[in-house]
Specification:
- By secondary structure, the protein is an all-beta fold.
- Helix content is 0%, strand content 46%.
- It has no helices and 10 strands.
- The strands form 2 sheets. The chain has a 6-stranded mixed β-sheet with strand order 2-10-9-4-5-6, with no helix packed on it. It has a 4-stranded antiparallel β-sheet with strand order 1-3-8-7, with no helix packed on it.
- It is globular and about 40 Å long.
- The chain starts with a strand and ends with a strand.
């Protein structure tokens, strides 16, 4: 069973940046699409960004132009660079593939 681990969350002021990391226990990111999701308190989990094995990316309208998903296959890691953060970006962020379960996620809090 391949496992994923998210890290990089924290408390940041509005307008700030964070880079989230998603590391796999095995080399799967070169052959599977990877998604970043987030879930804010009292809200449903939503898809934020995706990256295919070929490197094509897709973003939710709410984060376009501010978030960038990327992948380092050699390090079995997918990143989510988040810039110009807003309070409404506050959520627990999760990475997911078709063959992995939901992990613990990493908390992102945007507040002054």
């Amino acid at each position: 069973q391949v496992q994923l681990g998210e890290s990089g969350g924290g408390l940041v002021q509005p307008g700030g940046s964070l880079r989230l990391s998603c590391t796999a226990s095995r080399s799967i990111f070169g052959i599977l699409p990877v998604d970043w999701y987030r879930q804010a308190p009292g809200k449903q989990r939503e898809l934020v960004a995706s990256i295919t094995p070929g490197g094509a990316t897709n973003y939710a309208d709410s984060v376009k132009g501010r978030f960038t998903i990327s992948r380092d296959n050699a390090k079995n890691t997918v990143f989510l660079q988040m810039n110009s953060l807003k309070p409404e970006d506050t959520a627990v962020y999760y990475c997911k593939t078709q063959v992995t379960n939901w992990g613990q996620g990493t908390q992102v809090t945007v507040s002054s």
